Amino acid sequence: xxxxxxxxxxxxxxxxxxxxxxxxxxxxxxxxxxxxxxxxxxxxxxxxxxxxxxxxxxxxxxxxxxxxxxxxxxxxxxxxxxxxxxxxxxxxxxxxxxxxxxxxxxxxxxxxxxxxxxxxxxxxxxxxxxxxxxxxxxxxxxxxxxxxxxxxxxxxxxxxxxxxxxxxxxxxxxxxxxxxxxxxxxxxxxxxxxxxxxxxxxxxxxxxxxxxxxxxxxxxxxxxxxxxxxxxxxxxxxxxxxxxxxxxxxxxxxxxxxxxxxxxxxxxxxxxxxxxxxxxxxxxxxxxxxxxxxxxxxxxxxxxxxxxxxxxxxxxxxxxxxxxxxxxxxxxxxxxxxxxxxxxxxxxxxxxxxxxxxxxxxxxxxxxxxxxxxxxxxxxxxxxxxxxxxxxxxxxxxxxxxxxxxxxxxxxxxxxxxxxxxxxxxxxxxxxxxxxxxxxxxxxxxxxxxxxxxxxxxxxxxxxxxxxxxxxxxxxxxxxxxxxxxxxxxxxxxxxxxxxxxxxxxxxxxx
Length: 511
Prior knowledge:
Blueprint: H1 2-19, E1 28-31, E2 40-42, E3 44-48, E4 52-53, E5 74-82, E6 85-91, E7 110-115, E8 121-122, E9 141-143, E10 154-160, E11 171-179, E12 198-206, E13 211-214, E14 228-235, E15 238-245, E16 261-267, E17 278-281, E18 295-305, E19 310-318, E20 335-343, E21 357-359, E22 372-382, E23 385-393, E24 404-410, E25 415-419, E26 426-429, E27 433-434, E28 438-443, E29 451-456, E30 462-470, E31 474-478, E32 490-497, E33 504-510
Parallel strand pairs: 5-22, 9-13
Antiparallel strand pairs: 1-33, 2-26, 3-25, 4-24, 5-6, 6-7, 7-8, 10-11, 11-12, 12-13, 14-15, 15-16, 16-17, 18-19, 19-20, 20-21, 22-23, 23-24, 26-32, 27-32, 28-31, 28-33, 29-30, 29-32
């Protein structure tokens, strides 16, 4: 069985490696909520659109007793679509030590699932790892000379890197391992409390996404501070590992304490990582004076690389209103929704609308996802929809319905701009770009109230012969200029909404 499954997957991976587009996509996306890509606006308002939850949620459930994901099945992980197959890497949970030498904390094995529609999932018997006396399970194999580096304890992020010339490195992942201090080659910083385990930022590579080899003999953050990595992507010339920390390992700019915030490390080669880190994002209330009570950012963000921009969902943590009752979990009463974030440099992220829940937890006591929502790196554009997978976290520690759900949006429909004062004209101007074909993700346009699209030079002056009316709606409605854009010249777009327009512009695309 293992030979058959491995052969099929390796063949699919090989084909994907040949046909997959480069990571830095040929298409630039100027989202309506991205005020760096669309910096100049007049009489426009931004409306974010919350995700619609699938009626069959949760779409991937935990396994039966004895399965590696019986404790829970959570999208501390990733969903990618390759060819006609959705591939999911997620974490199960095993509550007891599987071998001598395991670091403290639950072992959360890297599990694998597949789907043809993103809704109905199968858990193939990979035959790679013996669990409860059998290899008939969906656990991926992680290999290293140091056993504690192979034990995933928390968040997992997988990326496909088809541009890597080494086929054995075309899948990359990062995860947290709670290593014993004595296992940390290269030492660690003395900042922070004297814990019994260390938050290790571990990297691994794979040819097929199923059998993994740890990079090197130590964590990426060896010699530095603990780090709870939760994200991995390539942007420009660097790989980035993002995740969370809180004081005393990180502070606000003035040195004062801060709760959970997102940090980023980077590497040019996926082997050597920066010791210095970037303060990537905090929720606005965390940086206020005084800080908003109980507001934190949970586990950085689940991220989607769109070539010229990073978009994602971050955990909007809110502390419990009171201390946990005696005998309850330390984070009993914590509630988490997911908010939208965006970055134009792969390092610094921001919320387009502070505090807006793109995926809100369900109604208390009634919904399967009513306590805390967990983000994954799980975004796929499929047909006319953007599909987003997420998980539920029972912060009370009872593992209640900790499974995986699906939400959808209009394709790239996270939000739109429209006339703020309906009876007045409105407009926006994009950042500059060079060459290419232009199209709009737009709705609400009519023949009687079309959008006017002008091409501007780098000094905002209209270029003669480049003005058209857009009268049709669509997810990728072409802007039909009469001639190709000027080659090699920096240009921008002005999009004008007439008075009384009901148009909604979700995104501008430049191919």
